[in-house]
Amino acid sequence: MSQVPAATRALRVLRFLASQPDPVPLDRIMRACDLPRSTAYHLLGAMVDEGFVVHLAEEHRFGLGVAAFEVGSGYSRQEPLQRLARRALATLVDRVGQSAHLAVLHGRDVLYVVEERAPGRPPLVTDVGVRLPAHLTASGRALLALLPPAQVRALYPGPAAFVDRHGTGPRSLSTLRAVLSETRARGYAVERGEVTPGLASVAAAVLDHNGHPVAAVAVTFPDPEPAAPDPTPDLDRTDPAALAADVRRTADVLTRRIGGTPNR
């Protein structure tokens, strides 16, 4: 850790705090960011002085400060990743004929920031600005699978963290870890009916220059039950693996455009 630049440590702290729904105690920051107590204490003190972190003394917790909000607001105004993604997603939609979207992780949720709807396809719940539980979505799983285990553990400290929509999906950290392990081995994330019954999604992560997942590209498509009796001849049985290959290519394009290296 002594060889890690102070700026890198500060950015790790900011990223961790940004992923939390509420301010957190010093010990949580130390574990999640792999910092010695003295280093964490002095680093947070400097970040408090600069306005990037606020110290809630009565609660013995730290949260994001106004300066961090200003940086986030500047990003929102410029929307670099969204601008890059729109054309790439439009090309993906033209190629596969299914709706696609770009999502980012926000705490235990994914926030959808770009959507490209395929002609003739119905509207989805993944409209721009919508938040959904990350552990239930393909986009969220693609992002969570590439986070440090300590950060995933901090996001899901107990059963109450696992929101349920339709009675399916991970209900515990051990189950989620198994899903994320399968996602890493497969190279892309899958969700089938856990967000909307009858629909499935595949997703792949976009990585920055540090190999950190900053967003996920996903495609959503009809997913009829395999055992449904007498399926109609024109029933859309899209191949998830074929779609995933196109999704991964698009995610790799965006990864390279922001200076990252695709994960294999």
UniProtKB/TrEMBL annotation:
Compositionally biased tracts (Pro residues): 223-232
Domain IclR-ED: 67-260
A single GO molecular function term of this UniProt record: DNA-binding transcription factor activity
Pfam families: HTH_IclR (PF09339), IclR_C (PF01614)
UniProt region (Disordered), positions on chain: 221-248
InterPro entries assigned: GAF-like_dom_sf, HTH_MetabolicPath_Reg, Tscrpt_reg_IclR_C, Tscrpt_reg_IclR_N, WH-like_DNA-bd_sf, WH_DNA-bd_sf
Key words, A-Z: DNA-binding, Transcription, Transcription regulation
Domain of life: Bacteria
GO BP field: negative regulation of DNA-templated transcription
Domain HTH iclR-type: 4-66
Alphabetized PANTHER family for the sequence: HELIX-TURN-HELIX TRANSCRIPTIONAL REGULATOR, ICLR FAMILY, TRANSCRIPTIONAL REGULATOR ICLR
This protein's name: DNA-binding IclR family transcriptional regulator
